[in-house]
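Researcher: Quick test of sequence recovery. Tokens follow.
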């Protein structure tokens, strides 16, 4: 008889204990809510860009810098996307962006009337009359970048040239040394946006 009572008492005690564990304490205590607990979000680092490849010869001369609008940043991203699509590396993007910084300050320029350099338009100030494409094409950031990169690919050893020489060989500018002043900003932009 004692055994049956003992089992009943232990069974009731077990149920009370289990109920307390699953139902929580019977007293009103403040329990922190999961929703109010701050959660640290850890992002995986983006693969880094090899900065030594971006400016292999060091910058030449004084460097210039312009603060970019959202439109100009979008053009940077378009140049990088076109560079990747062409199967070219970060250095090609630096050369392209520095060239566009010099030619248009990364603004997709249409015809500027009397201020136009002949019929030059777009990010790279390419000329329809020189065979770069139609106005619609050269004012399309992807097309104009691809056209510039096609020209760059045809320059033997462009990867080993100072930026200004590589850019000048493609662009044939009246001011060939002006590209060099944008190399640091172009490299910074590639570092920031290549993996974004």
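Model:
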């Amino acid at each position: 008889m004692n055994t049956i009572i003992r089992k009943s008492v232990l069974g009731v005690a077990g149920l009370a204990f289990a109920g307390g564990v699953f139902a929580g304490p019977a007293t009103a205590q403040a329990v922190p809510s999961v929703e109010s607990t701050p959660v640290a979000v850890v992002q995986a680092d983006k693969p880094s860009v090899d900065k030594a490849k971006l400016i292999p010869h060091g910058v030449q001369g004084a460097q210039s810098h312009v603060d970019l609008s959202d439109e100009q940043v979008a053009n940077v991203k378009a140049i990088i996307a076109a560079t990747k699509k062409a199967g070219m590396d970060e250095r090609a993007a630096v050369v392209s962006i520095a060239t566009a910084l010099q030619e248009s300050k990364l603004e997709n320029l249409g015809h500027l009337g009397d201020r136009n350099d002949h019929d030059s338009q777009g990010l790279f100030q390419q000329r329809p009359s020189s065979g770069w494409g139609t106005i619609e094409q050269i004012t399309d950031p992807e097309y104009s970048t691809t056209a510039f990169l096609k020209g760059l690919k045809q320059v033997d050893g462009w990867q080993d040239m100072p930026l200004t020489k590589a850019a000048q060989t493609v662009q044939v500018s009246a001011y060939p040394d002006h590209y060099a002043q944008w190399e640091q900003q172009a490299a910074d932009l590639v570092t920031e946006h290549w993996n974004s």
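The CA atoms of residues 93 and 184 lie 12 Å apart.
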